[in-house]
């Protein structure tokens, strides 16, 4: 039976006609003094935050480069988060079975504002930061926050530390289920991966997801979430590791093309899909390396791989900002996904939509543009 998954690339294709004319011009601003590996510091973030100095800065690490015990400490902390009670109203959100799933529910609630919009990159940057803080506060995790280096693992997914299925991995592939090619749109499909069924190896073996996928048409057309969005729907975590997608869309050539582009609009299209054809981009490709639920835009957070997938996205965005300091404060997009319903263009002073109960404050985008100012004090171990 053909697996009829709709792609993130299809979303990127639909965004072109509605956003390209509405895109605001970049808003360049000077970056402040440099320290440590040439990382820029943007001064002047308001709020009660200690200055980000050399002795305080945290280093995010490539998951593959971390020692086994460091990797296990990270996955242990995620599993710990799943033992913490939900703080959401269980009548409204029965799928929020624990604090970890509160993050997944929050992502669903805000998907239509923080994807294919001007909030995408900075909202997700702060969302990861909140989760990192919560791992420390709830579960005592003080180690490095890892990222999954997509091109470095593209030729050997199963042999990478990320997916080797050991207790020191992010768990491996799902059990193989032959359900045909992955159909992403009427004119675009990719070969089936090597899994498709339940994950039964590594630290997340036996994990139960709680929300069913939500149709991508809701995002494209700006429709309300279905009434069943937060209905409890328990099933095993599934994965379908896809080497074809990894090698085709998440390779070093695609990475450096994205890093070298000199405008944020092109950067946005290259990460979310190649505009003008049925193709995946770097970020959307990484989701489709995994298969469902990680390839389902609304409910993807249910798979813990989401966090290190998106810290790699943040690494990519951070590296692009460093390579293009005159564009580091640029913004692109409107306040709604695919500009549906129509909404104003974002500016660096547009308030973010908040992050649920984890932080309901609506900080302006400008406050979240730099990883060494304001609430942030981190950089990546290796510049891309």
UniProtKB/TrEMBL annotation:
InterPro entries: Di-copper_centre_dom_sf (IPR008922), Tyrosinase/Hemocyanin (IPR050316), Tyrosinase_Cu-bd (IPR002227). GO terms for molecular function: metal ion binding; oxidoreductase activity. It holds the Pfam family Tyrosinase. Transmembrane segments: none annotated. This is Tyrosinase copper-binding domain-containing protein. The keyword rRNA processing does not apply. Residues 1-22 form the signal peptide. Keywords: Metal-binding, Oxidoreductase, Signal. Residues 98-321 form the Tyrosinase copper-binding domain. It comes from the Eukaryota. The keyword Transcription does not apply.
């Amino acid at each position: 039976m053909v697996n009829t998954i709709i792609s993130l690339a299809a979303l990127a294709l639909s965004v072109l006609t509605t956003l390209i004319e509405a895109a605001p011009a970049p808003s360049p601003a000077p970056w402040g003094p440099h320290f440590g590996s040439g990382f820029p510091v943007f001064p002047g973030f308001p709020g009660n935050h200690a200055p980000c100095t050399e002795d305080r800065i945290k280093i995010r690490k490539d998951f593959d480069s971390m020692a086994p015990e460091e990797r296990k400490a990270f996955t242990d902390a995620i599993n710990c988060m799943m033992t913490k009670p939900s703080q959401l109203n269980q009548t409204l959100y029965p799928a929020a079975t624990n604090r970890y799933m509160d993050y997944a529910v929050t992502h669903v609630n805000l998907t239509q504002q923080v994807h294919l919009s001007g909030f995408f990159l900075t909202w997700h940057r702060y969302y990861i930061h909140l989760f990192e803080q919560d791992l420390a506060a709830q579960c005592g995790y003080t180690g490095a926050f890892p990222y999954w280096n997509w091109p470095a693992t593209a030729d050997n997914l199963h042999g990478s530390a990320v997916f080797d299925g050991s207790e020191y991995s992010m768990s491996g592939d799902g059990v193989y289920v032959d359900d045909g090619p992955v159909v992403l749109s009427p004119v675009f499909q990719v070969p089936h991966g090597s899994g498709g069924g339940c994950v039964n190896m590594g630290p997340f073996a036996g994990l139960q997801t709680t929300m069913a996928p939500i149709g991508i048409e809701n995002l494209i057309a700006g429709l309300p979430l279905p009434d069943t969005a937060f209905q409890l729907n328990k099933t095993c975590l599934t994965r379908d590791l896809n080497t074809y997608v990894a090698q085709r869309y998440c390779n070093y050539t695609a990475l450096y093309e994205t890093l070298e582009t000199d405008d944020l609009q092109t950067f946005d299209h290259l990460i979310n899909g190649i505009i003008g054809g049925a193709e995946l981009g770097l970020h959307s490709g990484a989701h489709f390396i995994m298969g469902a639920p990680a390839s389902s835009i609304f409910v993807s957070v249910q798979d813990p791989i989401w966090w290190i997938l998106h810290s790699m996205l943040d690494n990519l965005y951070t590296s692009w900002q460093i390579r293009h300091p005159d564009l580091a404060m640029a913004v692109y997009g409107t306040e709604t996904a695919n500009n549906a319903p129509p909404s104003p263009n974002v500016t660096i002073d547009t308030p973010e939509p908040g992050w649920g109960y984890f932080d309901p404050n609506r900080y302006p985008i400008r406050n979240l543009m730099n990883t060494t100012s304001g609430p942030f004090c981190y950089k990546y171990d290796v510049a891309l």
